[in-house]
Amino acid sequence: MPENHTNIIDGKAFAAAVRADVALDVTALKTKHGITPGLAVIIVGKDPASEVYVRNKVKQTAEAGMYSLHHDMEENTPEADLIAKVHALNSDPLIHGILVQLPLPDHIDEAAVIAAIAPEKDVDGFHIVNSGLLATGGKGMVPCTPLGCMMMLKDRLGDMSGLKAIIVGRSNIVGKPMAQLLLDANCTVTIAHSRTKNLADEVRSADIVVAAVGRAEMIKGDWIKKGATVIDVGINRIPAPERGEGKMRLVGDVDFEGAVKNAGAITPVPGGVGPMTIACLLRNTVTAACRQNGIEL
Ligand code: NDP
């Protein structure tokens, strides 16, 4: 992470603080209630990026003092077998959160698998019941990435009432829930996507910019209003010949070097939203364990 800017949001440090907080709650749950929050992660097949994510999730779950269960299933696992596994975990009292790592192999219908997870154990917050609850102001499980983005925004900005926010990207897992959370925080929200006209001008008018597109450095530095807060969700791998032949590096959806000059605060890639996503998964697992046992922490 570049060090000569004071407006960079340190997602790694923020995530470490969230995980420390989660670990305290886990200790309290164990000692006062005899409950160890349990998270089960299922991975199907051998996608290298997914394997790294899953390893990190399992490691950090254990470090927070939780019970961590990891199921590795073969690439050619039939959909019915995966759903049967999910059903078994739904009725396992030691498991409070279930995460099926996406993407799944092509022969498996992701929607059917997500629908099979008990909504109260859906710590990714992707089940239609949880998206419905989020959309209608109810108390469901909030998807981890948008939850992490909101924590960093609230920390920087406090009350966001009346601020203009733009989210670039309208996926079910990032863009839409993010828009909902910003609306709940009383922002005036614009959701942009691939058919949006004059995207640069839309971004220029925003006090908060959340980029969730999946296109390397697409949002230019001079699109960022002076003082705006920029949250870069994108993770893109681009060639880095300066590091040696065939080497790659990670960049976000925002041209960081340009945007950091205008932004009041900005998350880097890597070291911004990514670490917060896993920290929020742990937070959601504790929340799920509390709700399933009628406990208020
Ligand atoms: P999706 O591919 O599901 O959605 C991308 C969105 O970007 C779509 O809504 C699409 O519009 C929009 N889009 C594509 N091209 C343009 C364009 N030229 N101008 C404006 N909008 C455009 O991606 P995700 O939401 O799943 O992920 C977005 C990024 O965030 C990815 O890089 C992903 O790797 C990263 N990510 C990072 C996480 C983290 O923990 N840091 C977690 C999850 C995702 P349309 O709907 O019109 O096609």
Give me the CATH architecture of the largest domain, please. Answer: 3-Layer(aba) Sandwich
Give the helix proportion (percent range). Answer: 40-55%
Mean pLDDT: 96
CATH class wording of the largest domain = Alpha Beta
Which superfamily, in CATH terms, is the homologous superfamily of the largest domain?
A: NAD(P)-binding Rossmann-like Domain
* Overall strand count: 10
Structural class estimated from helices and strands? alpha/beta
Q: Ends: how far apart?
A: 35 Å
| H/E element sequence | HEHEHEHHHEHEHEEEEHEH
Low-confidence stretches: none
Reading side by side through the largest sheet, how are the strands ordered? Answer: 5-4-6-7-10
Gyration radius over CA:
19 Å
| Tertiary shape | globular
For the sheet with most strands, the description reads:
5 strands, parallel
CATH topology of the largest domain: Rossmann fold
Task: Give the ligands present.
Answer: NADPH dihydro-nicotinamide-adenine-dinucleotide phosphate
Number of domains: 2
Beta-strand residue fraction: 15-25%
How many helical elements? 10
Task: Describe this entry's structure for a reader.
It is a single chain. With 297 residues, the chain is α/β, with parallel strands linked by helices. The protein folds into two domains: 33-122, Rossmann fold; 144-275, Rossmann fold, CATH 3.40.50. The chain has ten helices and ten strands. It has a five-stranded parallel β-sheet with strand order 5-4-6-7-10, sandwiched between helices. α6 packs across α10. The longest helix is centred in the first third of the chain and has 23 residues, at 11-33. The chain is globular, with a radius of gyration of 19 Å. The two termini are 35 Å apart. Bound molecules: NADPH dihydro-nicotinamide-adenine-dinucleotide phosphate (NDP). NADPH dihydro-nicotinamide-adenine-dinucleotide phosphate is lined by residues 145, 168-171, 173-175, 192-196, 199, 212-215, 233-236, 273-274, 277. NADPH dihydro-nicotinamide-adenine-dinucleotide phosphate binds next to α10.
